[in-house]
Amino acid sequence: MLPTDIILRPAVPGDETLVAHYVRALADYEKLLDRAVATDEHFRCALFDTPARLSALIVERADAPIGFALWYYNFSTFTGTPGLYLEDIFVEETARNLGIGREIFRYLARVAVAAGCTKMNWAVLNWNAPSIAFYRGLGAQGMDDWTTQHLDGDALAKLAG
After folding, report:
1. What is the pLDDT of residues 38-73, one digit of tens each?
2. pLDDT attached to residue 144
3. 73, 90, 91, 97 — which has fewest CB within 10 A?
4. C-alpha distances in angstroms, 82 versus 20, 31, 61, 121, 124?
5. Is residue 44 domain-resident?
6. 135 an active-site residue?
7. According to the model, what pLDDT value does residue 140 have?
């Protein structure tokens, strides 16, 4: 059972600094900190400009932040329905194993269902066995028959060229 002093709330203007902090904390955990170059302003625009491109959830315990999640909507052309894509999730190490991760996923599942989504997707690094085991415990299935592709930087500019 989740401790009673933990709350999950939607991000509000002013939380962009906290979001940027947690994105960098996740990047550090994933050994990708050098790639985390987004600024508070990037997150302010993505979260709070019109149209919003991103949604965020802040997790607090005793009024102190301890985690977050970022997501956006995608669309399945096969089913003709929207999906929720979880871009980032992070819980402070000192707050792990309290049921917070499961509660974040429960919250996002409710958001997805309320928005008419028929799926939730996210990515996990292959070496991250604890997270993969956690996701399997939620009932998630790996999509081993699909390989994520990535195009950025010079290659993206050249193609756009």
Report:
1. 999 999 999 999 999 999 999 999 989 999 999 999
2. 87
3. 97
4. 27, 31, 32, 11, 21
5. yes
6. yes
7. 95
Task: Give me the pLDDT at residue 80, please.
Answer: 97
> Which candidate in 72, 85, 107, 135 is catalytic?
135
Residue 124 scores a pLDDT above 90? yes
How many Cα atoms occupy the beta-carbon half-sphere of 111 within 13 Å? 22
Contact 54, 20 (CB under 8 A): no
Over the stretch 59-68, which tens digit does the pLDDT of each residue have? 999 989 999 9
* Domain span including residue 137: 6-160
CATH number for the domain harbouring residue 108 = 3.40.630.30
Q: What is the pTM of this model?
A: 0.93
Count of domains observed in the chain: 1
Q: Is the peptide bond before 51 cis (omega within 30 degrees of 0)?
A: yes
What is the DSSP pairing of strand 120-122 with strand 81-91?
parallel
Q: 19 and 68 in contact (C-beta within 8 Å)? A: yes
Burial label, 84 (beta-carbon count in 10 A; 0-12, 13-18, 19+): buried
